[in-house]
Amino acid sequence: MGNLKIKVCGMTDAENVQAVCKHQPDYIGFIFYQKSVRYVGSEPDPELFSAVHEGIRKTAVFVNEHYGKMIDISDKYSIEVLQLHGMESPETCRTLRLHGKTVIKVFPGDQLENRRLLSDYTGVADFFLFDTPVISHGGSGRKFDWSILARLRSDVDFFLSGGITGADADMIKAIDLPSLYAVDINSRFETEPGIKDPDLVGKFINEIRDDK
Description:
This protein is an alpha/beta fold. Helix content is 26%, strand content 21%. The chain contains seven helices and ten strands. It has helices spanning 14-21, 47-50, 67-76, 90-98, 115-121, 169-173, 198-209, and strands at residues 5-8, 27-31, 57-62, 81-84, 102-108, 127-131, 158-160, 180-185, 190-192, 195-196. The strands form two sheets. It has an eight-stranded parallel β-barrel with strand order 1-2-3-4-5-6-7-8. A two-stranded antiparallel sheet has the order 9-10.
């Protein structure tokens, strides 16, 4: 579990990004979905993305966005990872990968037992992400029932998301699934939407990476 990756999502401020990056998460996420309270805006400041430290992977979060726009935005801001939070098709995932992007396909946690659905995206998405099912497409601050993870039948590595708090580190480290690749933290580490508490983030990262 010492190799478990950390993604901090929903960042909206360059100085806050720099403060969080000091704790060396593996991914920093930016939301390009207009209805999100963590939307980066139609013309975000390029400094928001250049603030990400070298070695940390920038991730763009989209919901049912047009393929061309996803490519244009991610290329403009040198973002290599795309997280698809809507009803994007396997073909869209495949095409984005052919463009050189790493694709994270998001599914509601209550769908992780849907073998046919997950099978459709196996081989065309690099990772899955399981989140709490909500109309807002994430950021709910609520967990889904993690006990159903034991019934997951997929070899695709996945991110665990949905209401994760600083108190969950030991519970996450106890999950015995080889395909658990990363945890995705967001709203429960904020002082306000889009602004993270760097100390809370750092403490959580240290606890996740502590094998003792």
